[in-house]
Design brief:
By secondary structure, the chain is of the alpha/beta class. It is about 65% helix and about 10% strand. It has a six-stranded mixed β-sheet with strand order 1-3-4-2-5-6, sandwiched between helices.
């Protein structure tokens, strides 16, 4: 971050020096006080517009406009009645146009520095959010961040007319497993399950730790048929980890057929999981409950 703040301060210093120099030059060279004020005002407006840039290229348009007006007025006064033949109207017009143009360029470089600084802040914020959203022990996304991720995926799927699915997987007798094996073994089992699930998911998939040994896998651009294959694989590897300490079940909900909101998909996948447990089947799709 120091690199970006240093660059900003350097360019602020450059702009300040240039503004002082250009305003002084225009004020000194302009034969008439009103045109000296006009030139100073133009430089200030161009500098502010170059930094804020409300419209693309607006600072360049203003620089050209001020330069044209400043030059035309100086030319008219040079040929006007009673004009001082020794007054530097031409030089003032040239210096004014030069000052307007360079001010636009210098202000533009400062805006670029601010833009890069903002981009760096946004990038770092995303990294921080990503780190905070992932459980360090399991490697899975924390439950409290699931809704935000799902809402992003819902918007993406809507924009590009794509499907995605949610697979929720969990053991049917987890409380008994904890009672028999203790909390320490339960925590180790949860971590092992998470790591095994992650190794079998794609980089674009997201594993969410719901509670206990229950996880949900977010599968972008995956139809229900593809999610069923993934669910079967996760159930197989999970039961190896449990080692006879219960059977795993999985419930599937798909966007947009089963639900069109993030929280709704979690709810529908949970209902499909409960159905699988009640029916003693390995994998259930939400569509089976319709």
């Amino acid at each position: 971050m120091t690199e970006y703040t240093r660059e900003i301060w350097v360019r602020v210093f450059m702009l300040a020096i240039w503004l002082a120099f250009s305003v002084g030059a225009v004020a000194v060279i302009s034969p008439d006080r009103d045109m000296a004020f006009f030139g100073t005002l133009g430089i200030a407006i161009i500098a502010g517009t170059g930094i804020l840039r409300p419209i693309r290229g607006s600072h360049l348009i203003l620089a050209g406009g001020f330069g044209l007006i400043f030059g035309v007025v100086q030319a008219l006064r040079k040929v006007g009645a009673g004009a001082d033949p020794n007054a530097p109207y031409v030089q003032a017009a040239a210096i004014g146009a030069f000052a307007f143009a360079i001010t636009a360029i210098v202000a533009d470089t400062l805006r670029d520095a601010f833009t890069r600084y903002d981009a760096e802040l946004e990038s770092r914020q995303k990294i921080i959010e990503e780190v905070e959203s992932v459980d360090s022990s399991t490697g899975a996304t924390k439950r409290q961040h699931a809704d935000r991720l799902l809402n992003i995926e819902v918007e993406r799927a809507r924009r590009y007319s794509r499907q995605f699915t949610m697979v929720m997987i969990g053991p049917d007798k987890w409380d008994e497993f904890v009672a028999v094996n203790g909390n320490g073994q339960a925590e180790r089992t949860i971590t092992a399950l998470s790591h095994e699930y992650l190794t079998r998911l794609r980089n674009v998939d997201t594993l969410i730790h719901i509670e206990g040994a229950t996880f949900a896998a977010l599968l972008p651009e995956t139809p229900v048929t593809g999610a069923q294959i993934v669910a079967e694989k996760l159930v197989d590897v999970g039961e190896v980890i449990l080692g006879g300490g219960g059977e795993l079940r999985a419930g599937i909900a798909g966007f947009p057929d089963d639900e069109v909101t993030g929280p709704g998909l979690i709810r529908e996948a949970a209902e499909a999981l409960h159905f699988a447990e009640a029916a003693s089947i390995r994998v259930a799709s939400r569509s089976l409950l319709s």
